[in-house]
Structure formats: structure tokens, C-alpha cells
Amino acid sequence: MKKIGLIGGMSWESSVVYYQIINESIREHLGGFHSARCIMESVDFAEIEQLQHQNDWSALDGIMVNAARNLENAGAELILLCTNTMHLCSAAIIDGISVPFIHIAQSTGMKIQSQGIRKVLLLGTKFTMEKPFFKNILKTDFELEVLVPNEKDRETVHDIIYKELVHGKLNISSKTTYQHIINKAISSGAQGVILGCTEIPLLINASDVGIPVFDTTRIHAEQAVEFALRLS
């Protein structure tokens, strides 16, 4: 298998989930005592969060490219960025490395398309819900109609991520709030919901809602494993 390079720490709670899913998937594919050949470069999320809310994406590009190059120099043969929001830096990363980069929105779009779903709700940070980097791939490459919550609900979804989930806090009231937002989208015709922040699946899973759930963390990690094995 090829060695998977992981850019993690955003947050470390979801990076743990990536590591677990990747190794479980390797064991499922190969059996026996097999585990993943992988390496992680983990950043300090305090610095990342501050730059995000200062809208300093140039500085963030530099940090992400440096992390990706460190992984490539350490022998990584493909790169995985273990966060949705920071895929805003994906173009800079791709330009800065010579190994394949697995884009989370591409992975998610393929999964949704394979199930014949055409209209989806996207939940994530305000950056992911409001900026085009994720939605445009789904619309342009996969011809999906992408819904996002209204402005007030986007603020609520974002605040729960940054004030609770990235700190490992899982509150029942927040789960109920997310379910209410998802149900409003179902009333507007949503056929599926994208959990477009790597922390949201810590709070919401398929049993919590009445439409198909697309967990970007799991989709992304499992596709990386398939890619690593296919290239071998």
C-alpha cells in the first residue's frame, strides 16, 4: 500500500477519527494484522482558528503547504487534509506538492452521485457553507443542487462547531438544534445531508435524521484507503 500523509489537528478530535477509520478500512480490505502506512503532520489549531477569523487565507495557505511538503519529504505518497474548511487552501497545496491530493468535496460528490441523490443540505462552518470552494465542486462536477441553512441557522451551526465540538463537548440540546435545521431542509426538498465539518459526525449520525447522511470524514478517509491500495 502507498503511505498516506495526513494534515491533522483541525481539530485533533476529528483527526483521531480519521486515523481510526483509515486503519479499520485497511483491515477490512486486507485482513489479518494489516494496518495503514501513514504519517501525520498535526498543526496547532489555536493559530489556525485565529487566522480563519482574521480572514488571512494567504497565511493559512502557507501553513498548509508547509505541512503538505513536510509530509511529502517524509515519504507520504498521497496527501489528505483532515478538515473541510481548510480545503479553501487546496489549490495552494496542490500547486506546492508533487504527490496526489485527495479532495474532500470530490470524494463526497462521488458518493452522493452514486446514490442517485440530486438535492442536498450542506452543514459545516460558515466558511464551508458560505464560500464557494465546496459547493462549486458539487454543483459543477456532479450537477447537485446544494442547500444551506438561513443566515441565523448558519451562525448557530458554526457556533456549535467552534464553541462545543472542537472542544470535545457533545450536548443533547445541540443535537436537537441540528436535527431541527435538517428537518427544515427536508421540508424544502433535501434528499440528503452532508456533514461538511469533520466534527459534526461526533454529534449527528444516520440514525438521528430521516434522510441519507454523508459523513465527509468517513467518505474522505475510506476513499484515501482505496486510492492507496489501488496505486500499490
From TrEMBL:
Gene3D superfamilies from the UniProt entry = 3.40.50.1860
InterPro entries from the UniProt entry: Asp/Glu/hydantoin_racemase, Asp/Glu_race, Asp/Glu_racemase_AS_2, Asp_race
One Gene Ontology term of the molecular function aspect: amino-acid racemase activity
SUPFAM superfamilies, per this entry?
Aspartate/glutamate racemase (SSF53681)
Keywords (alphabetical) are: Isomerase
For this protein, the record's Pfam families field holds:
Asp_Glu_race (PF01177)
Q: Out of the domains of life, which is the source?
A: Bacteria
Describe the family membership recorded for this protein in Swiss-Prot or TrEMBL: Belongs to the aspartate/glutamate racemases family.
Identification of the protein by name: Aspartate/glutamate racemase family protein
Recall the taxonomic lineage recorded for the source organism: Bacteria, Pseudomonadati, Bacteroidota, Flavobacteriia, Flavobacteriales
